[in-house]
Amino acid sequence: MTEAREFRLSDALLDRLARARSVLVLTGAGMSAESGIPTFRDAQTGIWSKFRPEELATPEAFAADPDRVWRWYEARRKTVREAQPHAGYLALVELEALVGELNVVTQNVDGLHQRAGSHRVWELHGNILRSKCHLSLRPIGREWIEESPQTPPPSPYVPEGLARPDVVWFGEALPTAAVEAAVEAASRCDFCFSIGTSSLVQPAASLPLYALERGAPLVEINPEHTPLSAQADQCIRGMASEVLVTVVSQLQAAKRENR
Ligand code: BV8
Question: What is the 67 CA–ligand 1 centroid distance (Å)?
Fold first, then answer.
């Protein structure tokens, strides 16, 4: 892939990245767009076109119509299972080997970072491929889900319980362990990338601010302007895959020259 000039990290920031002991990467739905998974801001298609994700990804929507919400997630799960991590995901795996430590904190629920081979991945909003009982919150295995003719399947644990996706809905608290790990990683990083997020959903959108407080450079990779852009040291207005491949090949070249 050619190294498009406008997708390159500046020399000063490349030098900071080459010396970084700990790098934080925050990703949003735009990181998965090129793997064929629509972003939250994309208009929904087909039978879902009349709904906004914010209307369906809530406990209230599930309580009002469990069948509709469950079917929405089943349709998304199918897309996720068919998706493959693109070259940008693989570039992040290569980046992990080039820097001291790489923490990937994702708002995405598709598990693509783990499938690509990234080792330190923190899922702030859960994972769509996991299900749990909506009352006891205990995990429900895929075989139970697939053997049940009902949508949503009943819970195996609680008589009135139903299976629900193991994701964080709007109005729900984020998993404590993931949040604590993410804040800790942001508070000790020497470099931060924010990739493919509209920087609107809280509290995830505030994570890069911990890195800025620490004096770490912030690079935003997003074809569009976001509320975070003004605070970034560099905004690279490109697609995640092409920009990440370019940045990692820059870093590899810099490391070779400095040997
Ligand atoms: C909570 C899982 C409290 C479900 C999701 C202030 C503080 C705290 C909370 C709030 C607050 N203000 C408002 C809130 C409430 C709310 C919120 O943030 N609302 C927003 C709409 C204003 N937050 C919450 O409800 C959170 N919970 O705060 O609880 C609490 C505390 C204690 C006890 C009880 C309660 C929970 C939020 C989590 C919601 N769940 N996902 C599911 O997936 O179904 S969030 C959902 O949005 C996805 O995870 C998605 O990732 C995420 C954020 O969106 P983005 O990732 O940014 O995606 P988006 O589509 O917006 O943008 C895509 C971007 O990519 C664009 O910028 C585009 O330009 C770019 N792009 C496109 N293509 C590419 C690209 N970039 C690069 N390359 C490309 N190829």
Answer: 23
User: Do 180 and 256 sit in the same domain of this protein?
Assistant: yes
125 among known catalytic residues: yes
The Cα–Cα gap between 119 and 188 comes to 18
pLDDT mean over 64-89: 97
The verdict on 227 and 138 lying in the same domain is no
Alpha helices in 19-166 (DSSP H): 30-33, 53-56, 59-64, 66-82, 87-98, 112-116, 142-147
- Nearest CA owner, ligand 1 atom 19: 201
Q: What distance in Å separates the CA atoms of residue 110 and residue 45, rounded to the nearest whole number?
A: 19
Domain count, the chain: 2
| CATH code at position 61 | 3.30.1600.10
- pLDDT tens-digit map of 108-130: 999 999 999 999 999 999 999 99
Query: Containing domain of residue 57, as a range?
Result: 38-82+131-167
> Does residue 72 share a domain with residue 105?
no
The residues, any chain, with a CB within 8 Å of residue 58's CB and separated by 6 or more, are: 169, 170, 171
Q: What are the structure tokens assigned to 213, written together?
A: 């407080």
Specify the ligand 1 atom closest to the Cα of 221.
Answer: 77
Task: State the helix-helix crossing angle for 11-18 and 240-257, rounded to 10 degrees.
Answer: 70
**Residue to substitute in 27, 40, 112 for testing ligand 1 pocket (most ligand atoms within 8 angstroms of CB):** 40
Beta strands 126-133; 163-167: pairing state: antiparallel
Specify the pTM: 0.96
